[in-house]
Hints:
Elements: H1 3-27, H2 29-50, H3 66-77, H4 94-109, H5 125-130, H6 137-149, H7 151-157
Amino acid sequence: xxxxxxVERLGxxxxxxxxxxxxxxxxxxxxxxxxxxxxxxxxxxxxLRYLDISTTTTGLIADxxxxxxxxxxxxxxxxxxxxxxxxxxxxxxxxGADAAAGRLAxxxxxxxxxxxxxxxxxxxxxxxxxxxxxxxLADLTALxxxxxxxxxLMAALA
Length: 158
């Protein structure tokens, strides 16, 4: 038997089966519609119960993975880092961004019912005073060299 003949014979079998299903469905149309509606209802109920969309990135990693265990321990030890809201303020100048961030932080501090703690690094007095201590040694050395190079210009301006 050649391949086209086998395909045709298989097609005849399926055509007969399909014709039998259609004939039985037409004879019991109300039952078919009722069964279809029940199946649709069950599908909707199953979808609503089990289909869930999570936008948290932590939900993508299983709890037994080392990273998740360490993260859980960290969040337990430092609860201040839970439920953070990070806002990035962009402006044409750094001063404009700092001013806008300060106004936003002040507005957020006025709503303690919504924002328990507000931290704005640009306006933090500790960082303004001691922020250079947080730089890497190489960055701090480069900054000191640039300031030393500009010392004569600053003296002339003073």
